[in-house]
Amino acid sequence: MHCLEVETGTQYTNTLSGYPVANRKRSWENFRLFSRELNSSEMPFAPIASDSISLMISVEDTGAGIPFDAQSRVFTPFMQVGPSIARIHGGTGIGLSISKCLVGLMKGEIGFSSKPQVGSTFTFTAVLTRVHSSRNENKSSEFKEINALVVDHRPVRAKVTKYHLQRLGVQTELTTDLDQYISKNNCGSQIAKLVLIDKETWLKESHSMPLLVTKLRNKDQPDSTKLFLLENPKSSVKSNSHIFREYNLNVIMKPLRASMLQVSLQRALGGIDKLHCRNGVVGNSTLGSLLHKKRIIVVDDNIVNLKVAAGALKKYGAEVTCADSGKEAITLLKPPHNFDACFMDIQMPEMDGFEATKRIRVMERDLNEQIERGEAPPECVGVRQWRTPILAMTADVIQATHEQCLKSEMDGYVSKPFEGEQLYREVARFFLNQDQVQ
Does Phosphoprotein appear among the keywords (predicted)? Predict the structure, then answer.
């Protein structure tokens, strides 16, 4: 297998991240091998008749990298590259040694390639049991007649986007040259129903964007083409909000996940309002009407998880406030306040979600005692009992965790990383079934 070569000195870097990495050839080569599975029933690592499959995962980090003289000891327990690493990044130096043990239990191997000031690429293999495709892995029939255009000047990154769209059944075309696409459009070519533009390319080709939008929106059906901006979580969404409003852009946060991409497309195409909560709870109410103007606080120490959760709620009209610690959540939720609900991560440093919730409930009980005595502040006039709905966000959905959520006086939980549809449904179910909103 050959990797896609890059000319020396070119501005394009053929890696999944779009930036220089420690093992560029392996980056593209592995993805090509993986993406072949879209149209092939053959597994690249194991015979088709086997019940086992060998999985290979590579993680590219474009950070500081590991000094060459320290690379021989990175898997040694309690060893750090240097005191500055421990001071800046924290940790005890056992993460990679634990990872090596876990990989060994899965009959695999782990290794890495690293260059100082470029980054590190860690790769591991694991032997797993083959399973049949689940319902969610099947191509969605609702998208099979839809065609899309991905605009990205980095070819490998564009292919990753195409891969996710194809998983949903969307017919996808790629272009790295926006001017060429506009010229092609002038010749009467079929207009894509969906146009997904990477933000880096949008900024790079900003001079062509007004013309592109004009071409797309001046057709017989002016709003038939939906525009999406693929946004990096580190970028500032607020600083570009005027662009989103001006061009009516739908924003999708990266890294892409099939579930979130599916929900974003459904929303833009008008199909999401057909969704109803499980067990028929929502009935004829749309999710947008349930969440519109709801004031929700999202608490998570992970900036990516924080933005994904906030973005998911905002898409349905919720007014979201973000907090990155349990202590900040306590400050914001000290009653009386104006929030309708809270999504709380349960695993955070210094103070986890369980402890934060317990302290919030103590403050609420104190206020409720004041309400009973008729000593409550003016903001509580008409309130019989103050209780802020708190839902846990957790990657651990075992029964013990559920019981601990209830023991901490949380009102429920959603899984993390969450499925977009599942998150929306849980919120809608909760708002409809809550006994009283303060």
Answer: yes
The model's pTM = 0.50
Q: Tell me: the pLDDT tens digits for 241-300?
A: 566 666 777 888 887 877 778 878 877 777 544 333 333 333 334 556 667 888 999 999
Q: Is the dihedral of CA 80, 84, 89, 92 positive or negative?
A: positive
Total residue count of the chain as it appears in this document: 438
Please give the domain boundaries of the chain with CATH numbers for all domains: 24-129 (3.30.565.10), 135-271 (3.40.50.2300), 278-433 (3.40.50.2300)
Distance CA 374, CA 392 (A): 32
Residue 199, CB half-sphere, CA atoms under 13 Å: how many? 21
Q: What does the alpha-carbon distance between residue 188 and residue 186 come to, in Å, rounded to a whole number?
A: 5
Distance CA 290, CA 210 (A): 35
How far, in Å, CA of 84 to CA of 430, rounded? 46
Is the separation of the CB atoms in 121 and 114 below 8 Å? yes
Are 283 and 276 within 8 A, CB to CB? yes
CB 356 within 8 A of CB 329: yes
Secondary structure of residue 380 in the 3-state scheme:
helix
Q: What's the one-letter identity of residue 340?
A: D
> Cα(2)–Cα(418) distance, rounded to whole angstroms?
36
Residue with tokens 């099947």: 138
Q: Which residues of 36-70 are buried (b: 16+ CB within 10 A; e: fewer)?
A: eeeeeeeeeebeeeeeebebbebebbbebbbeeee
Handedness of CA 38, 256, 251, 135 (dihedral sign): positive
> Of all helices (H) and strands (E), which one includes residue 433?
helix 420-433
What is the tens place of the pLDDT at every residue in 130-167? 776 544 444 556 787 888 999 998 888 899 899 999 98
Q: Amino acid identity, residue 324? A: D
- What is the rounded distance in angstroms from the CA atom of residue 357 to the CA atom of residue 409? 7
